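Researcher: We're teaching a course module on how sequence relates to structure. For the next exercise, students receive a sequence and then see the predicted structure as tokens, so they can try to spot secondary structure elements on their own. Here is the exercise chain.
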Amino acid sequence: MAAPPLSLARRVAGASSPAAAAHSSSCPRYFRPRLLPSKRWSGVVKMGAAVGGGQGGEEEETRQAKEMAAARRRWETLIREQKIKTLTPREAGYTFKLTDKVLLDVRPSNERQKAWVKGSTWIPVFDVDTSSDLNGLSKKAFNFMIGGWWSGSSTMSFNKNFVQQTEEKFSKDADIILVCQKGLRSIAAAEQLYNAGFKILFWVQGGLEAAEEEDFEREGSQPFKLAGIGGVSEFFGWTDQQRAQAAKEGWGYRLLFTGRLVGAIVLADALFVGAQSIGPLLQQLQPH
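Model: And here is the predicted structure for the students to work with:
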């Protein structure tokens, strides 16, 4: 790991010059870099509550869109007022390694089990929905039909005990760095902790997907950037993250997924030929 940036210690300590703060607050919105992820999220986080997507029709979607817009405004205010401080993945890696700050991983279990930062603490703000009642099964079926089979995305349930579980592990004056896969769940989790009385909070902008492998000491079988993908698109290597990985690793990486595609085509062809052969065979076996 290279030497940390000279400005990092000041930022982590919360030091911010009046001139810089004035510039941040007075600078027009379109001149400031986008901090929050722009990609749509399937869950809407409110003050201590969450509403999952996927039901209720157009009115439900409209309501969720309004709640998401309101949440974004709250998060931008918390960041702008330095109530939640922002770190890049590299800065977060330096800070976690060189200080006694806590790294709190709030990702669901299906992402955490693929790759995690060594020494981090795991408390999910959302986790994979394991309910087997009619409502839970209908949500899972709907999620699968609208693209879960392709992307591998799972139906999530909000962890109502997230704040309580965090309070059981850390005091409210602890320095906590929050991270998720893309940065959205972690800023929502940071808001909940701030409202619960935690005051020294850091948010990793872009999440682990924006991190390079050298930024953190990784454990697990997958690179950080690939921990959030799944489904058919992952199996065949058709995600943006895998394309970027292939550009780094070369033809050996590409050949693996090319082999899978060829194998799938051969299997589909064999099943088609087999189905055509079984029909006449069954007719011959029928008694005349």
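Model: If you want an answer key for the exercise: The two ends are 79 Å apart (CA to CA). Residues 48 and 192 are 6 Å apart (CA to CA).
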